[in-house]
Design brief:
Largest sheet: none
Helix content: over 70%
Radius of gyration: 17 Å
Number of helices: 6
Number of strands: 0
Shape: globular
Strand content: under 5%
């Protein structure tokens, strides 16, 4: 595969991640609070739930790209790019809200788009046809995926998980009752 192929794939990935991320922001509500959809889409306005908007679409592109670009470091650089993007969202959000004392939705949307661009740009620039420790990066992705799913239903009572709209954590009480039946 040529460098042009990876560039085209990264452009398509960028558009896909942004588009799917926007859909995942509303999908839980659109599906009438479907418990299964909650696993991979935002269930409230907490910072943690907004990280899902980058993680799950990018996970899809990581898996597809890893199979397309075999014998490369794609999995490794893409996972590092994902971690970079997640870090950017957290650092940007907590820095500007710490300074202002409140959040501005357009800045949150902009930081999501910028995090996708940073992640994809990093992946493109660091891509090479050489092997890396794929096992380690599959473990990192698994741990992140597991954390996003588990913390949706068993949410720690710390700030990153708190919905600033109503002060709740994770699945709302009515959905929790459904889970226990």
């Amino acid at each position: 595969m040529k460098r042009k192929d990876i560039f085209i794939f990264e452009i398509i990935s960028t558009i896909f991640i942004i588009f799917l991320g926007f859909i995942l922001h509303f999908l839980y509500e659109w599906t009438n609070n479907n418990i299964i959809v909650a696993s991979f889409s935002a269930i409230n306005e907490s910072t943690w739930e907004h990280l899902k908007l980058l993680f799950f679409p990018m996970l899809i592109t990581i898996i597809i790209g890893t199979f397309i670009f075999r014998n490369s470091n794609y999995l490794c650089v893409k996972t590092k790019g994902l971690l970079l993007g997640l870090s950017f969202i957290l650092i940007f959000f907590y820095t500007y809200t710490g300074i202002l004392g409140y959040n501005i939705p357009i800045l949150d949307i902009g930081s999501f788009i910028i995090s996708v661009l940073i992640s994809e740009y990093y992946s493109y620039k660091k891509f090479k046809y050489e092997n890396c420790n794929k096992t380690l990066f599959w473990i990192i992705l698994f741990v992140l995926c597991f954390s996003f799913v588990i913390f949706t239903y068993k949410t720690p009572k710390i700030g990153i998980f708190k919905d600033p709209v109503d002060g709740s954590f994770g699945i709302k009480e009515k959905e929790r009752k459904f889970l226990s039946n």
